[in-house]
Amino acid sequence: MNPPDPDGPAPPPRPYAMPASPVSPVPTVAPGRYVIVEGGEGVGKSTQVAALAKRLEAAGVTCAVVREPGGDPFAEAGRELLLGDLDRTPAAEVLAFNALRAQLLESVVAPLLAVGTWVLADRGRLSTIAYQGYGAGADLGWTRRVCDLTISLCPPNLEVVLDLDPVVAAERRTARGSDDRFERMDLGFHQRVAHAYRHEAERAGITVVDADGTPDEITDRLWAVVGPLRPSP
Ligand code: T5A
């Protein structure tokens, strides 16, 4: 017979939206906010994250921009591997994206939030659920659990999905000209990813913003959900 587990029975899983325990019981500065902008290829995430950072800075908020995969030397090296062409299984891809996410959360995001800096992220856990779960066929329940476990290291204050017809997004990408492993996937893959974002957003009550229009129009729509996260003066 196995000896009794010294930890006793497993506690119930922590809900995803629960805030992380504070590092110190007496914070000296108001913590920053962690905002993740999500969506398929070419919907305008990088453009909008940069525009939001400008608006926040103009409003007196110190902020930093990060991207996934990436964000520190280890995670950027992993990005090269993941966006390259070496064969991998969907489950290995889920774990690899989450390993790089854990690195980013613990080494970059959490320390910035602790000193009051806002973090605007280009992609996060929903990308793994959409691309590896719905797109590449990794088991969805397992993928969600792995992603929830990882993001519990540093839960975001807001996730927002930019929604755009994948055909329009593909035109934007073609106009720009770029070509990594995921961008080369066929339209069916990108349609599954777009459907995934809509479905996951509806399931979890995540805000969806229409990404059709001029960049300024879309920034105004995003600002309507991000701006109110600022503490009242
Ligand atoms: N991935 C990532 C996974 O599979 N699983 C994961 O868990 C994670 C985290 C990352 C890849 O990794 C995959 C998904 C991705 O394939 P990436 O290079 O960071 O690779 O890819 P994207 O995040 O998709 O970046 P893109 O640059 O392709 O898309 P964006 O950021 O959504 O779009 P953006 O802002 O660069 O704009 C694209 C083009 O459109 C123009 C821009 O000027 C640019 O040329 N544009 C507009 N044009 C007209 N109207 C507008 N409103 C426009 N807004 C921008």
Proportion of helical residues? 40-55%
- Show unreliable segments: 13-20
Specify the overall morphology.
Answer: globular
Number of strands: 5
Cα(first) to Cα(last) distance is: 61 Å
Structural class computed from helices and strand pairing: alpha/beta
Would you tell me the overall average pLDDT? 90
Number of helices: 8
CATH architecture: 3-Layer(aba) Sandwich
What hetero molecules are in the model?
Answer: P1-(5'-adenosyl)P5-(5'-thymidyl)pentaphosphate
Radius of gyration: 18 Å
The multimeric state of the shown protein is: single chain
CATH 4th-level superfamily: P-loop containing nucleotide triphosphate hydrolases
Describe the strand arrangement of the main beta sheet, using strand numbers.
2-3-1-4-5
Order of helices and strands: EHEHHEHHEHHEH
Q: How many separate domains make up the residues?
A: 1
Beta-strand percent range: 5-15%
CATH fold assignment:
Rossmann fold
Explain this structure.
The chain has about 230 residues and is α/β, with parallel strands linked by helices. The protein has a single domain (about 35-230), classed as P-loop containing nucleotide triphosphate hydrolases (Rossmann fold). It contains eight helices and five strands. The protein has helices at about 45-60, 75-85, 90-115, 125-135, 140-150, 165-175, 185-205, 215-225, and strands at about 35-40, 65, 120, 160-165, 205-210. The chain is globular and about 50 Å long. Mean pLDDT is about 90; it is low at about 15-20. The structure holds P1-(5'-adenosyl)P5-(5'-thymidyl)pentaphosphate (T5A).
